[in-house]
Amino acid sequence: MKRDFLRIPDFSRDEVAGILETAARLKKERKEGKPHRLLEGKSVGMLFNKSSTRTRISFEVGIYQLGAQAVVLSGDKIQMGRGETRPDTAKVFSRYLDALVIRTYAHEEVEELAKSADIPVINALTDMYHPCQILSDMLTIVEKRGKLDGVKVAYIGDGNNVAHSWLLGSALMGINLSVACPEGYEPDKQVVAEANALAEKSGASLEIVRDPSVAVKDADVLYTDTWVSMGQDEETETRRKAFAGFTIDSALAGKARPGAMVMHCLPAHRGEEITSEVMDGPASVVWDQAENRLHTQKAIMLKLLL
Ligand code: CP
Ligand code: NVA
Q: What is the per-residue pLDDT for 219?
């Protein structure tokens, strides 16, 4: 049975731990110059309907490093953009490709493709979730802190796709998560309910608060993302006003646990959700975080394709 990775709970806690171990090994092998062409002869489709720098490059390079071929597609250049149905497209993809990586708007679109495809489908971001990001962020936390269990992450900002994947990811892995967001920009209620149910099993503590200073108390990791996600450009001005006071600056960072690290999935809007002082400062791990996308996504592909 083929498996997909559309949301973090598609993997069990043990499977996530295993993927992170594989990612760390692949990273080490790469630094040592040891090739690992484990997907030789395979072809992976990459369908991107939204902009991307990190995800697109890290998947394409990762596919190459695993000895496979990346077939880069965009929605407006394939017949699906002219009305060919998603199920028909998924069936055709399955006859040529060994897996599909997709970034798009509606999460349901990815679910529909995955349902009709005989090949694994990997979610490279939808309006609802960004699971590959959070899995690779976990690798960064393990590298820097040696563990996930009991680590406290403070997510400051929009209750968006990244926040949703953090809620599910932390709940699965026993990470304590405090989300601070302005009124009206909270995470989706159903996602919060699902995360709370998962947290009961893992022992993670989850909270949604209004005040960023409350969220960062005793935090080991401060995390943020843009206030204006792709597809929300017309809300830019309203959002900038609503998110005033939600910037990770030195004053806010100073309220976290001493030695806390600062993470951002990028792209950053310097001066909005994070100041340059913090992003370029000693607590920031954003470049390691970006690099780890490559290693973790390679591990995800091996898990689903081997
Ligand atoms: N963090 C992230 O997904 O970046 P891109 O949008 O550049 O892929
Ligand atoms: N929340 C952002 C993440 C970008 C990587 C967006 O969806 O645009």
A: 98
- Cβ(227)–Cβ(252) below 8 Å: no
- Segment 122-130 mean pLDDT: 98
Distance CA(102)–CA(206), nearest Å, equals 29
Residues pairing with 176 in the sheet: 152
- For the full predicted model, state whether its pTM sits above 0.70: yes
Q: Which residue owns the Cα nearest ligand 1 atom 4?
A: 54
- pLDDT tens digits for range 19-28: 999 999 999 9
Ligand nearest to the CA of 289: 1
Tell me the two tokens of residue 70. 């990346």
pLDDT tens across 157-178, in order?
A: 999 999 999 999 999 999 999 9
> Cα separation of 235 and 182, whole Å?
15
222-264 pLDDT tens trace? 999 999 999 999 999 999 999 999 999 999 999 999 999 999 9
Secondary structure element (H or E) that encloses residue 103, with its range: strand 99-103
133 flagged as catalytic: yes
Polymer length in residues for the chain: 306
Q: List every span in the chain annotated with CATH 3.40.50.1370.
A: 8-129+293-305, 133-289
Q: Residue 1 is which amino acid?
A: M
- Residue whose Cα lies nearest atom 6 of ligand 1: it is 52
Cα separation, 167 vs 225, whole angstroms: 14
- Annotated active-site residue in 107, 130, 164, 295: 130
133-289 topology per CATH: Rossmann fold (3.40.50)
Q: Which fold has domain 8-129+293-305?
A: Rossmann fold (3.40.50)
> 259: which 2 tokens?
């030695």
